[in-house]
Amino acid sequence: MVAINSVAELTIDGEVALVAIDSPPVNALSQAVRDGLKRGVEAAEANGAVKAIVIICGGRTFIAGADISEFGKPPAPPHLPEVLDRIENASKPVVAALHGTALGGGFEVALTAHYRIAVPSAKCGLPEIKLGLIPGAGGTQRLPRLIGVEKALEVILSGSPFSAREAKEWGVVDELAEEGKLRESALAFARRLIAEKAPLRKVRDRSDKLEPARSHPEIFEAIRKANAGKFRGFEAWEKAIESVKNAVELPFEEGIVKEREMFMALLQTTQSKAQRHVFFAERQAAKVEGIGADEPTRRIASVGVIGAGTMGGGIAMNFLSAGIPVTIVETSKEALDRGVSVMRRNYEATAKKGRLTMAEVGERMGRLAPTLDFGALGKADLVIEAVFENMDLKKGVFERLDGVAKPGAILASNTSYLDIDAIAAKTKRPEDVLGMHFFSPANVMRLLEIVRGAKTSKSVLATITRLTPKIGKIGVVVGVCHGFVSNRMLAQRQREAMKLILEGATPWDVDRVQVEFGMPMGSFAMSDLAGLDIGWSAETSKRSTIREILCEEGRRGQKTGAGFYDYDEARNAKPSARVETIIREFAASKGIAQRAIGDGEMLERCVYPMINEGAKILQEGKAQRASDIDIVWVYGYGWPVYRGGPMFYADAVGLKAVLSKLKEFQSRFGDDFKPAALLETLAADGGAFSHS
Ligand code: T1G
User: Fold this and answer.
1) Known catalytic residue at 259
2) pLDDT tens string 602-652
């Protein structure tokens, strides 16, 4: 064994050379890995005894892509295309031996090898689209040559990995190795190639799989049409289609040059910077200050859920789907049965879409123990309260739970606003209490806001932050304040949206601007979905707000077929003349002058106060880092990932510009726009939230 450099070594095993890369955590194509690959292959080439070369990786995975952390920095040689040329043009057969996740540039390395072998558990893929990019090292030129245009574009536009078995079936992988025996299998495979004098098969020379598209160029327009909705607002996807089209229409050399040009151009876009920011922000969010990897955690083998309503049922499904048995408690048989049947219906709907088998539905529902007996919660390792959003009710539940739950059980509240410390104070074990704020629908939305109470212990926090990915969630740890990070910032947007319609805009104008910005839905459509009667009662209603008037008129949202919008049977929203009248009459009764409001103002009035509130949250220490706030909005409310989140967006706009606009609004509309001290400081120092 010869060390090529700090991450690469060369071993000669008879007539086979093994170029082994080991650069934790995921063998990303850093400068050292590129250098090691290139010089490893060159050394193997130069060794007369060697008749075949195997590229293999140590650690948990084959190369998982380019080193994303190097993007935006001056590229150091050897550049990836150069390394790939060295592999593809080797004079001896090169075998790529795959395990873990061969992704992006890693998969492109494998595609330049003449043969590929993989363990059955391996996955391959081109996830660049998730980073606002296209494959930039031959993926859009070589993959269609191997599997055809349609399947290649499916892989590239989904960004999702495919299994080694699919890869074998599609002809991407030539051989499946024995699981856990990749090195031996790859050596044996290489020896067979030597014995059979196997040719130097270059994917770039294939064209048979391009023929169908060559004779049916209309498929590109069909693929574009089929994906337009899904990629609303994104830039990279059309470049991916264009580049694969080049693979069909241009010689390989021209296609790969154009691919690189498109890739390099996308690398500079704000969209790609935003999506790369979210990639790392998501991984950062999992790290909690003061809690090391060695923090002891508690075993969560059973869960209790209090309340089988929309949230309780969705929460329970996350644990059932993760293989954890759940005891769910309700106060009446009717409510319990209704909740359980909704859960079963949700699972059956997923099965209908082919994403679950009915057997799996049965298994998951089989782990559920519905009960009216509160005492049954005494066995659970974790109990999550999901009752109506009322402080007295929640305090009562925790007082009772304190008497039932076993020592060491973790007690969590799904409150979306209320003071976790006040709830914890109703128990004799506040160190075992925290908030677990799920987002509706709780079995679908990926965000979990983990609310750290003043007395929440480190082991409780460590336990929940490590449990979170196991139930398919992305956790963000936040401090106790009204509405935490999520709803506290949302309240800013909703407040301004209401003021805008009183000053002359319409709900559908305001929503259109937010949707064009990239939000999945606007403020008023969201209110209609949640229901306008949350916290409203006919007895106390005084027509003192637009909401009260709408509720009094039976317009309580989608569920009543009318709210700010009118809804047809298929729940499609239509602007409502009646609502516009209500708004204008209400504004007149308040003496509010009407004016035409531009899209720019509508957007800034809704987004900038959110950013400002984010700055306050940071300066109060209610969030660990600005990127956590971005993750809350991207995964909690569908903030467009290609805008990186509110704090990243503010940095992209420029904090000076955000500050001056807030000050302008403050002078026109009052102190709701008073800039946060942190924003003032950062703007003055030319700083950014990403470095705050
Ligand atoms: N570059 C740099 N760091 C990376 C990385 C990468 N490609 N992939 C992972 N990491 C870091 C990550 O930040 C974390 O660090 C640690 O590794 C473990 O990751 C030319 C240009 C491979 C499936 O998009 O999807 O190639 O937080 O927590 O859950 O066409 O990481 O511990 O400090 O995610 O086991 C294409 C991205 C790049 C794959 C493993 N490749 N990575 O998941 O661990 S673009 C990707 C992943 C490209 C070419 C183009 C996942 C994973 P830390 P992790 P995991």
Assistant:
1) no
2) 999 999 999 999 999 999 999 999 999 999 999 999 999 999 999 999 999
Structure tokens at 309: 């309503």
Q: Is the CB of 67 under 6 A from ligand 1?
A: yes
Burial label, 184 (beta-carbon count in 10 A; 0-12, 13-18, 19+)? exposed
List b or e across 283-309, with b for residues whose CB sees 16 or more CB atoms inside 10 angstroms: eebeebeebeeebebbebebbbbbbbb
128 is catalytic: yes
Pairing state between β 2-5 and 8-13: antiparallel
Cα-based angle 611, 613, 619 (whole degrees, multiple of 5): 105
Cα 22 to middle of ligand 1, angstroms: 15
Strands 382-385 and 303-306, by their bridges, are: parallel
Query: pLDDT tens-digit profile of 428-470?
Result: 999 999 999 999 899 999 999 999 999 999 999 999 999 999 9
Tally of CA atoms within 13 A in the half-sphere of 76 that contains its CB: 10
Which atom belonging to ligand 1 lies closest to the Cα atom of 106?
Answer: 26
Beta bridge mates, 438 = 448
pTM > 0.70: yes
CA 3 to ligand 1 center in whole angstroms: 25
- Distances 256 to 74, 98, 110, 235 between C-alpha atoms, Å: 22, 24, 16, 20
**Distance in angstroms (rounded) separating the CA atoms of residues 497 and 602:** 8
Residue 6 structure tokens: 């700090």
Tokens 């679950």 — which residue?
Answer: 356
Place of tokens 């992704």: 103
